[in-house]
Amino acid sequence: MTPVPQIRHYQNWLQATRGLSFDNYEALWRWSVSDLDAFWQSIWDYFEVQSPTPHTAVLGRRSMPGAEWFPGAQGNYAQQVFRHAAAAEAAGVPAIVSHGEASLAAGDAPRELGWAEMRRQAASLALHLKAQGVQPGDRVAAYLPNTPETMVAFLATASLGAVWSVCAPDMGTPAVLDRFRQIAPTVLIACNGVHYGGRDMARGEAVAELVAALPSVTHVLIHEILPASGLPAGHARFADAVARDDAQTAAFEPLWLPFEHPLWIVYSSGTTGLPKPIVHSHGGVALVGLALLRLHNDLAPSHADPANPERFHWYSSTGWIMWNVQAASLLNGTTCCIYDGNPAGTNKDKPDWSTLWRFVASTRATFFGAGAAFFANCMKAGVDVAQCGDLGRLRTLGTTGSPLSEDTQRWGTAQFTKIGNPDIWWCNISGGTDFAGAFIGGNRELPVVPGEMQCRILGCAVEAWNDKGESVVGEVGELVCTQPLPSMPLYFVGDKDNQRYLASYFDTYPGIWRHGDWLKVTPSGSCIIYGRSDATINRHGLRMGTSELYSAIEALPEVLDSLVVDLEYLGRESYMPLFVVLRPGHTLDEAMKARLNHAVKTALSPRFVPNDIFAVPEIPRTLSGKKQELPIKKLLLGQPLEKVVNRDAMANPACLDWYLAFANQRAGANAPK
After folding, report:
1. Which helix (H) or strand (E) holds 441?
2. Whether 167 contacts 120, CB under 8 Å
3. Any alpha helices (H) in 333-371, and if so which ranges?
4. Nearest Cα to Cα of residue 285 among 247, 257, 313
5. Which residues of 423-461 are buried (b: 16+ CB within 10 A; e: fewer)?
6. Which residues, in sequence order, are CB contacts of 165 under 8 Å at separation 6+?
7. Angstrom distance (rounded) from CA 87 to CA 640
């Protein structure tokens, strides 16, 4: 029997406790964005959020940015997680089920971490950090992969009121330092290596570089993933820091903190400058996460039905906001299934796109999410999910990161129809690092239409606006959010007078959040995302500012100038060309291309290596010297030149002839045969 959707339970509760009933989802959504006080108070009450002190209002200040949520209330993200421990332990359901790449390949049973043990380890580490002098508001930086230890480290940090920030160890040291230097961490928790793509990769030298370049760090913890002969002088072993088991660990409780106390710092890159260090709050992230995962992703607490426990997996690295969403399942009491390794298996020369499907079968996950590009790769590789183990408990597929094409969604549905599950539900979401949530997502009760997302998320006043700043339906426009959300940023670190914060989201429409995506809201209320409306790069769900690529590329003495655009659009696979101007006497041969690719790999990540590299005479620039990324992107996506650029505002308009010829050549090559 199909369980009652979680969003239906919520609506039944609204009717019973508030006397509110709605004819359809559109009416429910409109109430949620027009009466913010009533809606967010209902979320607080429905999830029985606890605070030792009452709040004096839901919205103390309504401005955007600068909204003040639940003044007077206290909370702690870790407190909300650990409140599930007793019920989960009694039901015998684990907190985390995990595999590494090697253990999955070997056919080992997944590793399980119980709720009580997760709490003990987090308490032990919190006491260790406190003994090093860590105080509320101090920054704890992590250079760790997607393992249970990273989750424990995050919860320990949050318990103390310290502020968490993590970078994935596949990121180049310069990119990590661009982030961590801005936040001046007190503690660094780092791994000595990672296992990825069938290879062990030592990270000792990278960690030494980080420590040397971060003078604010007073304590270093090393998580020994690879065999080690010993620790550098003054460093402590992570395994020792989580080993304590005594009366103090048993009695440890997370601190009660103001609702808007900083929880973590995440990074989102624009087209200029360093990555934006975005600070979110304990209370805001917890409330938004609970509403998203329970009501829209239809995830129940695992202890609610121990015979059929919920298990949530969303493939991610620690460098993507989906790692944070994955962690948020614990807020809901849902078992979190995490995989550390290459989604294409252990042999980089022979990708095995069945890997994650076998992981899902091994962990008995009920919800499997990944970037849209993953599912497209599975379709192209001819993956047969029937050969990937028992997927009988899987009832939901989730996607984000880029638009999912109709063909890929139909392929996935056909795969599950073959194994007797024609009703597999696609929960396609779109949101962002910027506010640690989703604007658009799923609803178990609404029709599933391939190529579309089902609805706008409750509490998210999302609209598509045309060039005149008017809300439109059935037309593509700028995605805006007209009302504040609890998880919108508190501030950016080091951002004087909120100048960068305002410029990032509110420069186009003062008081209105402009997200940077093209959106169409259909007459039925479903949504289609058409890709980025700005020049930010979106590769495999990970966003990176173009300025970071330019720093890596233009550091090479042979390169005078460069421009990069990402042509991800409406479910097509991302295509990212790099255009370079080389110094006289240098040519773009294979050796030069290898040097450019290596520079990107080393400074950033292999994920951001361009698809193609082209030598060009000039990079188009405005009269003020700004690279014209967005006009070139629009041109290469098929828009007429005269509509995307004003030649009179350019310093070098003649150079456009090369890009126009390139666009025409590309259009001819991609035309249907």
Report:
1. strand 437-441
2. no
3. 355-363
4. 257
5. ebbbbbbbbbbbbbbbbbbbbbebebebbbbbbbbbbbb
6. 139, 140, 141, 142, 179, 180, 183, 185, 264, 265, 266, 277
7. 61
The conformation of residue 654, written as its DSSP 8-state character, comes to G
Residue among 278, 148, 194 nearest 207 (CA): 194
Q: Tell me how far apart the alpha carbons of residues 176 and 274 are, in angstroms, rounded to a whole number.
A: 11
CB 464 within 8 A of CB 478: yes
625: left (phi > 0), else alpha (psi -120 to 50), else beta?
A: left
Instruction: Return the sign of the alpha-carbon dihedral for residues 218, 221, 227, 229.
Output: positive
- β-strand partners of 310: none
How many angstroms separate the CA atoms of 612 and 606, rounded?
Answer: 14
DSSP annotation of 296 reads: I
Residue indicated by tokens 């004096």 = 56
Q: For the chain, what percentages of helix, strand and coil (3-state, to nearest 5) are there? A: 35, 20, 40
Per the DSSP assignment, residues forming a β-bridge with 74 are 258
Q: Which residues pair with 368 in a beta bridge?
A: 313, 397
3-state secondary structure labels for all residues of 530-581: EEECCCCEEECCEEECHHHHHHHHCCCCCEEEEEECCCCCCCCCCCCEEEEE
pLDDT at 376: 83
List, edge to edge, every strand of the sheet that includes 491-492: 236-237, 219-223, 187-191, 139-143, 163-167, 262-268, 276-281, 491-492
Q: What is the pLDDT of residue 429?
A: 95
Closest to 604 in 3D by CA, of 179, 152, 55, 135: 179
Q: At residue 500, what are phi and psi to the nearest 5 degrees?
A: -75, -35
β-sheet bridge partners, residue 369 = 314, 398
The per-residue pLDDT for 1 is: 61
**Rounded CA gap, 130 and 588, in Å?**
54
Residue 400 CA to residue 322 CA, distance in Å, equals 9
- The tokens for 405 are 């094409």
Low-confidence ranges of the chain (pLDDT < 50): 672-673
Residue 232 DSSP label: P
User: In this structure, are residues 554 and 581 in contact, taking their beta carbons and an 8 Å threshold?
Assistant: no
d(CA 349, CA 587) in angstroms, rounded, equals: 29
The single-letter code of the amino acid at 50 is Q
CA 554 to chain centre: 28
Give residue for tokens 């040519």.
587
**Separation between Cα atoms, residue 271 and residue 292, nearest integer Å:** 29
**461-482 pLDDT per residue, tens:** 999 999 899 999 998 889 999 9
Tokens of 169: 């160890």
Collapsing DSSP to helix, strand or coil, 487 comes out as coil
In Å, the largest CA–CA distance within the chain is 77
Q: Which amino acid is at 411?
A: W
Q: Provide the H-helix boundaries in 617-655.
A: 629-636, 641-644
Q: What is the rounded distance in angstroms from the CA atom of residue 184 to the CA atom of residue 494?
A: 11
Q: Say which amino acid occupies 55.
A: H
8-state DSSP, 650:
B
Q: What was the pLDDT predicted at 79?
A: 97
